[in-house]
Design brief:
The complex is a heterotrimer of chains A (about 140), B (about 110) and C (about 750). Chain A is built from two helices and eight strands. Chain A is an alpha+beta fold. Classes of the chains: A alpha+beta (about 140), B mainly alpha (about 110), C alpha+beta (about 750).
Chain lengths: ~140, ~110, ~750
């Protein structure tokens, strides 16, 4: 920008550069989010859509009475928030401290044959126990 | 016991909240003068801070000599103006009470 | 007392409503006594909130389980310290804490401005009352902390074990203080826009509150990170979790605001930007509060929602956002800058650019955090984006912010000359380059490009701060003939905002060096070990020496003692435990002690160069058979005992509970006498300690910047206009305030 340039023209150029940079950032952000994001599926959605070899994010609540540990794995079922459906999961890896029956979880799963779904190692996350208790489902 | 506590808190709250509404005209006038003095003193302090900041910027290489001279002159002129107004506000605050009462509000 | 507490909250709500009406009435009719009365209503609200808080805390301390929140959040076995703090581990208790802090900080702000900015204060007061009425109204109508049951349960549910950590008790009051302090400059900005008094006065009277908010939010975020690192058992301190981001976003925005207001104070520029920024920051504070309570986003520590509160919060946020935009648009003419940007290579331009990057960072975090909801609104399906979605944007933007935080303090105002560039930049740039060159010889460092650059930029920032301290001390010593150490303390004492800020910059740079090193060069592994077995990680050998176990009525601990060595030399001995807390399942009289809540006690050996971190997951499956047998037998025995006549029942039950406790002790001891393999998660993280050290340095810098100066009458003033003070052999500064004769 030369010394002799009109100040208002300088301001206009700066504004255009700033807006262009903002637009580029926003576009990159939107594209990356939609491209990299994966759908969170409830138990019923997972049972409908699951294909062998693909990984999905299963979201739901740990079914009361479904938690069982063996020396090699953790077994639990994740129930659908609205329908009377639950999906059995076999999981290995770190189990978050807050994990327990009745708590909301997210876990990456893939089809594991007749036994249900297999959780990807280290993918299990759990919502904290509720400080702000809402009535839990009875299923 | 619980009701006594509530009544005490209620009474205290009412007393505190209605305090300004129970103030006399003279107290309100004095308060208005004090407010003006406080505003000007704050403006003065802020201006001193700006003058000191500008000098610090000069000494640490953040301002050129020419820019500093212009800024310092402008700031000191503003400070002088504030000091004049502060002197007038102090004088108004020291004015005898009955003179203050004779002056109609808003003037 | 519960009824009294609820009545007090109603009184508080009425005070808030009165204060709002009185403030506006006083402003519209020009009767300042009504505005003053309104201000005192805020004092009254603070007092009422404090009394209510004390009533509730006494209930927690005395374990009065008639109160529902005491029964749900505490127990007779909860340690005293956690009982005091458990009040804000509940929805209604935390809302009461919000009311208390908001009313206290508002009272302080209104007291300090009782004789200032009289045009602005009534409207600012009204906004603060509106917000206070909102939160007080929530406690009165929807989340009554004094809700009461006629029949008290014999024991409370207790505080969740994960929250039994000192940092977790201080973390919420710090965050809430940050949020409520942010609402002070927010309210004064609204007041300035409504009254049309658009100079820098509203900024000057609220600047300290913005800085205090920055400090409190920062400490709250740091405490949360520390809790995550030492308590949660996953080995990290930041997960880009929505609840974490909820506090980070307003913190970033207020960081930008604290810098950009300097430009308005000095040059009368960026008025629209500053007003918009603080209005957005205040709104983000409420958005953050909403996010934590709403449960609308899946989070490792978000909480289940109450729909009534959600609707209320959404309504408030909408009013704040729409109102803010409307006010700025309405006053856009009055917000025009007094000056223009002289050059892109100037301090003003650098501050502006840094602001834009900080806002961009906030926008990125906001978008990715809320993306599951955005995607659901657009596509009908909730889409999950984890931490990898943040890094491509956050890391480069953070690098730019760090670089600018080094450039900003040393670049001149208005325009830079070649001479000034050389003089001010040679040392810091040299220090940064030397760091980068030296690191070339450290194996593998330059392969992690962003970490490598962060080390260089961080060194540049620290060198900048050091240079500024050196030059400032030298200049003051020349002016006052003081020895340099005395000149240094005098320098900081008289320029707290500036030099406190430099300390903050250095602290943040050091902290980010710690972040870069610990994330890019961390080693992590999982190993399943029996006592006597070892695993290797990053050149260290971690040997499982022996198992440990303990059992009380509140908790079962299963743990391990580990020995760490390197190159045959013993480095440290560590202990990690896994805590099992009982559930309330009556059908498993023994099993419930093994299948309730869990928490990890991390084994940590922290050092200046590296941390070694270990947790155990002991897996009680081998005991399951014995536990099930015990449950069956004890359930039968308990049923039989409960059918006995009254006089014999208590004795029989006592015997059975004693046997149960013995059984639990024996089962727990099995972990030591017949230890089975346990899973260990191990980490070696370089320079993590510098994250905490840097954060503490930044906090200290913030405190220094926040500390008020002595009144003018006790301060010394500089020399005459137009001349630099010549160095003399003894101090010559006048001790009384400067007068007109000295200024011309």
């Amino acid at each position: 920008m030369g010394r002799g340039m009109d100040p208002s023209r300088k301001r206009a150029i700066r504004l255009v550069v700033a807006l262009t940079a903002a637009l580029l950032l926003a576009s990159a952000l939107v594209y990356t989010s939609f491209a990299a994001g994966r759908d969170e599926l409830t138990a019923s959605q997972l049972l409908k859509r699951a294909k062998p070899g693909q990984t999905y994010i299963l979201a739901g609540t740990v079914l009361n009475g479904s938690v069982r540990r063996t020396s090699s794995a953790l077994f639990f079922s994740v129930r659908d928030p609205k329908l009377h459906v639950a999906v059995p999961v076999r999981y290995t890896g770190e189990v978050p401290d807050p994990f327990a029956q009745g708590r909301a979880v997210l876990v990456d799963v893939r089809e594991g044959g007749p036994t249900g779904f297999i959780g990807e190692t280290g993918s299990l996350t759990t919502k904290c126990p509720s400080k702000y208790q809402a009535a839990s489902g009875s299923y | 016991m619980a009701y006594v506590l509530v009544l005490v808190v209620l009474a205290a709250a009412i007393y505190v909240i209605t305090g300004p509404l129970r103030a006399t005209r003279r107290e309100r006038t004095l308060n208005a003068d004090r407010i003006q003095v406080a505003e000007l003193e704050a403006a003065r302090d802020a201006k001193y801070g700006e003058i000191r900041d500008a000098e610090m910027d000069l000494r640490t290489g953040k301002l050129s000599d020419a820019d500093y001279a212009a800024i310092d002159q402008a700031l000191r002129a503003e400070a002088v103006d504030i000091l004049h107004r502060l002197d007038q506000a102090h004088a108004a605050e020291r004015m005898p009470a009955r003179e203050a009462e004779r002056i109609p509000s808003g003037s | 007392m519960a009824d009294a507490g609820h009545v007090l909250l109603i009184l508080g709500l009425l005070s808030a409503i009165y204060g709002l009406v009185a403030s506006l009435y006083g402003a519209r009719t020009g009767q300042p006594e009504w505005v003053d009365s309104g201000r005192r209503a805020m004092y009254a609200l603070a007092g009422i909130a404090a009394v209510s808080f004390v009533i509730l805390d006494v209930a927690f301390v005395t374990s009065d389980f008639h109160y529902n929140i005491v029964a749900s959040g505490s127990s007779t076995t909860t340690p005293f310290f956690y009982r005091i703090a458990a009040i804000w581990a509940t929805q209604s208790g935390s809302l009461l804490l919000w009311v208390l802090l908001l009313s206290c900080w508002s009272s302080l702000a209104l007291f300090l401005t009782r004789r200032r900015v009289r045009d602005i204060v009534p409207y600012a007061q009204a906004v603060l009352f509106g917000l206070s009425a909102f939160f007080t109204g929530l406690t009165v109508l929807f989340a009554n902390p004094f809700a009461y049951s006629a029949v008290a349960p014999p024991e409370g549910a207790g505080l969740d074990p994960l929250l039994r950590h000192t940092t977790m008790m201080i973390h919420p009051p710090m965050l809430y203080s940050g949020y409520t302090l942010l609402l002070v400059p927010f309210s004064f900005a609204v007041g300035a826009l409504i009254s049309g008094r658009l100079g820098a006065e509203w900024i000057q009277v609220t600047r300290r509150f913005a800085l205090a908010a920055w400090l409190c939010l920062g400490i709250g975020i740091l405490l949360g990170a520390r809790w995550s690192y030492t308590e949660l058992g996953w080995g990290g301190y930041w997960a880009w979790d929505p609840v974490e981001n909820a506090a980070l976003m307003p913190w970033l925005c207020v960081t930008a605001y604290i810098h950009s207001i300097m430009i308005q104070e000095k040059r009368g520029m960026l008025k629209v930007w500053n007003a918009s920024l603080i209005l957005a920051t205040g709104s983000l504070a409420i958005v953050g509060t909403f996010l934590v309570r709403s449960g609308i986003l899946s989070s490792i520590h978000a909480f289940v929602s109450d729909p009534t509160l959600n609707i209320s919060f959404v309504a408030l946020i909408s009013v704040m956002v729409i109102g803010s935009i409307s006010l700025v648009v309405w006053r856009r003419e009055g917000l025009k800058s007094d000056a223009r940007l002289d050059s892109l290579f100037s301090r003003e331009a650098v501050f502006l650019f840094q602001n834009m990057v900080l806002v961009a960072l906030t926008a990125v975090i906001f978008w990715v955090t809320f993306f599951p909801l955005i995607s659901e609104a657009i596509t009908g399906t909730e889409v999950s984006v984890g931490p990898p979605a943040f890094r491509p944007f956050v890391v480069p933007l953070a690098l730019v912010v760090v670089a600018l935080s080094g450039i900003g303090p040393i670049i001149p105002w208005r325009r830079v000359t070649a001479g000034k560039l050389r003089r001010n930049f040679t040392f810091p740039v040299g220090a940064g380059l030397v760091t980068l060159i030296v690191l070339q010889f450290v194996s593998g460092v330059d392969r992690h490009v962003f970490a490598y650059l962060m080390f260089g930029f961080g060194t540049f920032v620290v060198a900048t701060a050091a240079q500024e301290f050196f030059r400032g001390a030298r200049a003051r010593a020349a002016m006052t003939s003081e020895p340099v150490p005395i000149a240094l303390t005098g320098l900081v004492r008289r320029n707290r905002r500036r030099y406190g800020g430099y300390i903050v910059h250095a602290g943040v740079a050091i902290a980010l060096i710690g972040v870069a090193a610990s994330t890019s060069f961390q080693h992590q592994r999982t190993a399943t070990l029996r006592p006597g077995q070892s695993a290797r990680i990053d050149g260290y050998t971690v040997k499982y020496v022996r198992a440990t176990a303990g059992a009380t009525a509140q908790k079962i601990s299963l743990g391990a003692v580990l020995s760490v060595s390197k190159g045959g030399r013993h480095v440290t001995t560590m202990q990690t435990t896994y805590g099992l807390y009982p559930s309330e399942n009556p059908t498993q009289p023994i099993g419930r002690f093994f299948n309730g809540s869990d928490e990890s006690r991390v084994g940590l050996d922290a050092g200046l160069l590296r941390d070694i971190w270990v947790v155990i997951d002991p897996n009680v499956t081998p005991l399951q058979g014995l536990i099930s047998q015990g449950d069956a037998k004890l359930s039968t025995a308990l049923a039989q005992a409960e059918s006995l006549p009254q006089g014999q029942q208590a004795k029989a039950l006592n015997v059975l509970y004693s046997l149960r406790d013995i059984a639990i002790q024996e089962l727990t001891r099995q972990f030591v006498t017949h230890p089975w393999s346990a899973q260990f998660l191990m980490e070696v993280s370089p320079l993590v300690t510098w994250l905490w050290i840097g954060a503490i340095i930044a906090a200290l810098g913030g405190l220094i910047a926040l500390w008020p100066m002595a009144p003018v009458g006790t301060r010394r003033f500089g020399g005459p206009s137009g001349r630099r003070s010549e160095p003399t052999s003894r101090p010559t500064e006048p001790t009384e305030p400067a007068r007109e004769a000295e200024l011309v």
